[in-house]
Every structure is written in C-alpha cells, then in structure tokens.
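sanity check this:
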Amino acid sequence: MPKRVFVSFDYDFDKTLKDFLVGQAKNPDSPFEVHDWSIKEASPDWKVKARARIRASDIVIVICGEHTDEAVGVAIELEIAQEENIDYFLLNGYKGQTGKKPTTAKASDKVYRWTWDNLKILVGGDR
C-alpha cells in the first residue's frame, strides 16, 4: 500500500515543484500518494488543520527552494511533523542549486537530491 505523503512547500515560490511531485506520485511504480492538503488561505485555525493533515500522513516531504528559510508556514509544518513524530525528509527543489532548509530543520537534517530513484528510497525510509 502506498504511503500517504504530506508535502510542505513555499506556496509563494515553489507551488510548481509540489505539482511535479504530485505528478511523480502517479507513476505506476510510485511507493507514495499525495493528497492535495495544501492550506491555500491563512485562517485562524490553519495550524490545527495542518496538524490534522500531517497526523493523517505517513511521511512529510519538505521541498527546499531558494526562499524556504523565509517561509514561516513551512517552518511550522516541519515543527508539527517533529512534534507528532511523523517521519520527514528535506528534498532539494532545484537542480544546480542548494535548497535552503526551513528554520525549524535540525542541523543533522540533510537536503536530498530530487531524483525518482532517491524519492523511492527516501519514502521507503532509507536515510
């Protein structure tokens, strides 16, 4: 059964990357599925909604782009994943660049290269 993935990304700069990841999840050999759980509009209860969606996931993929270190929502979603003990990993969004970690990432969190083979390994828990 495919793992349920919550994707955390900078909505202002990296929405296209999330769309690419959703597309890859549709590959016939994909070990994961992505539900579009993005919270598009800020609301007083968005953190509660994000926590519920993260809890319903098996793993959180954090897409790291050029501005991820400034994305408050991404930092909060990663912090929620850590608090809820949900497995996560950081994925470099752009080839030839080093994606910036969210401010709540641990020093030991590695930013992994985005390839199809890497995704399958990472979702499988090999890190």
The mean pLDDT is 92. The first helix runs from residue 15 to 25. The longest strand covers residues 3-8.
